[in-house]
């Protein structure tokens, strides 16, 4: 790995900051009394009637969840437009557009004087997230050497976790500001990560894949030499040109991707983001302060607990960075799945013992609250080194060039769709299902862990242009890949 590649991937990965900051900021802001009393007065009254309401239901409001979830609905739609921009104009310009729009949305949110202005700002933030999440993982996968692709791609998830932790810390500090305007600072500071990726994108080189795709072969060859740090790039360049020619022959990638031969990749692009969200992680990350207040923590204690989970999330993601290209994708997903199942069941039991099915108000002792936070951290750490980063890495590396932009758009749109569903329904589900909600999520983690064991092949250290060979060798997906001669690196391999 050259210093050039490392720095390019580091700058590109900052696109994850905007996604992470938003995940962390929304839950903290919606737990601030000054914010609730201004925009959601009915929720403010309801959550303060502690002794007369079901604790599970005191934040249950469709309008409140719409504030959080509207961003992800906008990101879903934007990801389809981002596919065209990424393909026709390059990865860097898609990142630039995403960062710029996110910056405008953050400014609007910070200056909001009514709910309409607040939601409009959230929609602009969502458009920015949709563009960044579509282009950044593709950029990282294309720039990285095959044997280091996992580590560099997980830089995107690392930036997401940094964004979450930064948002949690800012919420904690802003909640202590007298005068009730701290929420404005929390929302407006989203402009900082937006500006970072927008300015950073202008300095980024374009990937060799994108240059070849857009007909700049000499520039692509020069960039590939710079990226790899050697003149011995002829074989890789030859493979990229072949892949690009195949890509150009595809006039309708959205129609192409539904063909039988791409069934494995299409399945993963739909199910992996679904599984990533049905773990329940974003329900906890979005509403961490709200959740902690619901289960008996005070205002400051809830924000401190969310900072702790954000810190655990950051540290655990670094474990994935150093191990993903050694242990492989499957090992981390399987281990993380088992750990999440156990911790979610324990969390559900602990909440059930304390609040039962009635949700009667109960003060938590310091030791009991600490135990609850500890097992939530065990769960968060498992997600952070498995489904968190790999939910973005695996889909970004499995698509051939001719359908890569379309495939990544499907991946992002599915991720945003299921994120929207979870964000919109979590508080209502908590009200209806109570502590059993954690058993619900644990059940899905069991299903997805079995799915990985049976249907996800190992993709570590495999060049992207040779990925089809992996599917052909798989016991189930092999029957979908037509028998032909696959061009694999240094020669033809008959399959």
TrEMBL record:
<dbReference type="InterPro" id="IPR045262">
    <property type="entry name" value="STP/PLT_plant"/>
</dbReference>
<feature type="transmembrane region" description="Helical">
    <location>
        <begin position="300"/>
        <end position="324"/>
    </location>
</feature>
<keyword id="KW-0732">Signal</keyword>
<keyword id="KW-0769">Symport</keyword>
<dbReference type="InterPro" id="IPR044778">
    <property type="entry name" value="MFS_STP/MST-like_plant"/>
</dbReference>
<feature type="signal peptide">
    <location>
        <begin position="1"/>
        <end position="16"/>
    </location>
</feature>
<feature type="transmembrane region" description="Helical">
    <location>
        <begin position="152"/>
        <end position="175"/>
    </location>
</feature>
<dbReference type="InterPro" id="IPR005828">
    <property type="entry name" value="MFS_sugar_transport-like"/>
</dbReference>
<keyword id="KW-0762">Sugar transport</keyword>
<keyword id="KW-0813">Transport</keyword>
<feature type="transmembrane region" description="Helical">
    <location>
        <begin position="438"/>
        <end position="457"/>
    </location>
</feature>
<keyword id="KW-1133">Transmembrane helix</keyword>
<dbReference type="InterPro" id="IPR005829">
    <property type="entry name" value="Sugar_transporter_CS"/>
</dbReference>
<dbReference type="GO" id="GO:0015293">
    <property type="term" value="F:symporter activity"/>
</dbReference>
<keyword id="KW-0812">Transmembrane</keyword>
<feature type="transmembrane region" description="Helical">
    <location>
        <begin position="63"/>
        <end position="81"/>
    </location>
</feature>
<feature type="transmembrane region" description="Helical">
    <location>
        <begin position="331"/>
        <end position="351"/>
    </location>
</feature>
<dbReference type="GO" id="GO:0016020">
    <property type="term" value="C:membrane"/>
</dbReference>
<dbReference type="Pfam" id="PF00083">
    <property type="entry name" value="Sugar_tr"/>
</dbReference>
<feature type="domain" description="Major facilitator superfamily (MFS) profile">
    <location>
        <begin position="8"/>
        <end position="460"/>
    </location>
</feature>
<feature type="transmembrane region" description="Helical">
    <location>
        <begin position="266"/>
        <end position="288"/>
    </location>
</feature>
<feature type="transmembrane region" description="Helical">
    <location>
        <begin position="371"/>
        <end position="394"/>
    </location>
</feature>
<keyword id="KW-0472">Membrane</keyword>
<feature type="transmembrane region" description="Helical">
    <location>
        <begin position="406"/>
        <end position="426"/>
    </location>
</feature>
<dbReference type="InterPro" id="IPR036259">
    <property type="entry name" value="MFS_trans_sf"/>
</dbReference>
<protein>
    <recommendedName>
        <fullName>Major facilitator superfamily (MFS) profile domain-containing protein</fullName>
    </recommendedName>
</protein>
<feature type="transmembrane region" description="Helical">
    <location>
        <begin position="93"/>
        <end position="113"/>
    </location>
</feature>
<feature type="transmembrane region" description="Helical">
    <location>
        <begin position="119"/>
        <end position="140"/>
    </location>
</feature>
<comment type="similarity">
    <text>Belongs to the major facilitator superfamily. Sugar transporter (TC 2.A.1.1) family.</text>
</comment>
<feature type="transmembrane region" description="Helical">
    <location>
        <begin position="181"/>
        <end position="204"/>
    </location>
</feature>
<dbReference type="InterPro" id="IPR020846">
    <property type="entry name" value="MFS_dom"/>
</dbReference>
<dbReference type="InterPro" id="IPR003663">
    <property type="entry name" value="Sugar/inositol_transpt"/>
</dbReference>
<dbReference type="GO" id="GO:0015145">
    <property type="term" value="F:monosaccharide transmembrane transporter activity"/>
</dbReference>
């Amino acid at each position: 790995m050259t210093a050039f590649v490392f720095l390019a991937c580091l700058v590109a990965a900052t696109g994850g900051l905007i996604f992470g900051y938003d995940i962390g900021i929304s839950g903290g802001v919606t737990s601030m009394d000054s914010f609730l009393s201004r925009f959601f007065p009915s929720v403010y009254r309801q959550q303060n009637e502690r002794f007369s309401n079901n604790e599970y239901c005191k934040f249950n409001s469709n309008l409140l969840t719409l504030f959080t979830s509207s961003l992800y609905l906008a990101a879903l739609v934007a990801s389809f437009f981002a596919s065209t921009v990424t393909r026709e104009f390059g990865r860097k310009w898609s990142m630039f557009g995403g960062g710029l729009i996110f910056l405008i949305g953050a400014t609007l949110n910070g200056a909001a004087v009514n709910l309409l202005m607040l939601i409009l700002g959230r929609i602009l933030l969502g458009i920015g997230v949709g563009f960044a999440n579509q282009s950044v993982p593709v950029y990282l996968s294309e720039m990285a050497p095959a044997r280091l692709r996992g580590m560099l791609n997980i830089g995107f998830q690392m930036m997401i976790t940094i964004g979450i932790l930064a948002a949690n810390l800012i919420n904690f500090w802003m909640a202590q500001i007298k005068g009730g305007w701290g929420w404005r600072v929390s929302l407006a500071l989203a402009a900082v990560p937006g500006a970072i990726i927008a300015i950073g994108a202008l300095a980024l080189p374009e990937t060799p894949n994108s240059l070849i795709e857009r007909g700049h072969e000499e520039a692509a060859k020069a960039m590939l030499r710079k990226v790899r740090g050697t003149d011995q790039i002829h074989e890789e360049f030859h493979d990229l040109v072949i892949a690009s020619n195949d890509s150009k022959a595809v006039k309708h990638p959205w129609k192409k991707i539904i063909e039988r031969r791409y069934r494995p990749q299409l399945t993963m692009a739909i199910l992996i983001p679904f599984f990533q969200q049905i773990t329940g992680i974003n329900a906890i990350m979005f509403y961490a302060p709200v959740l902690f207040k619901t289960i008996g923590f005070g205002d400051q204690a809830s924000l401190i607990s969310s900072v702790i989970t954000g810190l655990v999330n950051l540290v655990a993601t670094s474990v994935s960075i150093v191990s993903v290209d050694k242990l492989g994708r499957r090992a981390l997903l399987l281990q993380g799945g088992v750990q999440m199942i156990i911790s979610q069941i324990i969390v559900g039991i602990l909440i059930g013992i304390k609040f039962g099915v009635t949700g009667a108000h109960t003060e938590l002792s310091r030791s009991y609250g600490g135990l609850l936070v500890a097992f939530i951290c065990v769960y968060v750490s498992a997600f952070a080194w498995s489904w968190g980063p790999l939910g973005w890495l695996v889909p970004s590396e499995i698509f051939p060039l001719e359908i890569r932009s379309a495939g990544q758009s499907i991946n992002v749109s599915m991720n945003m769709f299921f994120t929207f569903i979870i964000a919109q329904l979590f508080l209502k589900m908590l009200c209806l299902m109570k502590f059993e909600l954690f058993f619900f999520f644990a059940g899905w983690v069991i299903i997805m862990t079995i799915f990985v064991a049976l249907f996800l092949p190992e993709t570590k250290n495999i060049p992207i242009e040779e990925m089809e060979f992996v599917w052909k060798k798989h016991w189930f997906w092999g029957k979908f890949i037509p028998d032909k001669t696959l061009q694999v690196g240094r020669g033809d391999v008959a399959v």
